Amino acid sequence: FMADTQRLDKILANFGYGTRKEVKQLVKQGKIMIDGIPAADSAMHVNPETSIIEVEGEKLNYKEYIYIMMNKPAGVISATFDNKLKTVIDLLPDQYKVFNPFPVGRLDIDTEGLLIITNDGALAHMLLSPKKSVPKTYYVLVEGKVTEEDIKSFSKGIVLDDGYKTLPAQLKILKQGEHSETEIIIYEGKFHQVKRMFESVDKKVKYLRRLVMGSVALDEKLEIGQFRELTQEELQMLHDCVN
Ligand code: URA
User: Considering only CA atoms, which of 241, 235, 236, 240 is closest in space to residue 68?
Assistant: First the structure.
């Protein structure tokens, strides 16, 4: 969640009202009101969730939650901070970072595709809860020939290297050959789950991309590394699949 208070100039700069210097100018000119009183200082701390901020009479459209869909590129990690590696949050502009968003679950560093990023902890928690069994669809490029037998095994649940038996998963062969193209739907999110499921049938995942979470599909118009806010409909769909 958002920190309780932040510097006024930072809030406004992040909402596109110019640089900190320009915001300072607006404050000097008495053009910024906090709860109906002209702001005294651009460095003052304000809680944008509880205070009404107006710029030249226009109310700041502050929202509590942000919901982003990202087409995650390979090479970045699904975390908010890392000492060495680039994170998915690093890819976002400040206007989104002020919400302190975090990725809902993890995709491996080499996995691409749909990642929901939000600061809505309650929704994230439900989407990740094993009790909710939210389906996730992946496109999987596999080294080796994926067979009907694999489909059957996956549909019964697969025992992973640590002895854990997965829930039944639906495997579909798109293209069969030395390298197979497949799509899989899983209902949980164990560590490296898809890769480990294929390892259990002696095959190696060469490329993995998440296509769907719940019933929200990756927007085909998003290039790798691009992102956009969820639409109202998509947000509703996420809520529907956990309620
Ligand atoms: N399964 C994996 O093995 N990796 C991912 O990133 C997601 C699912």
Answer: 235
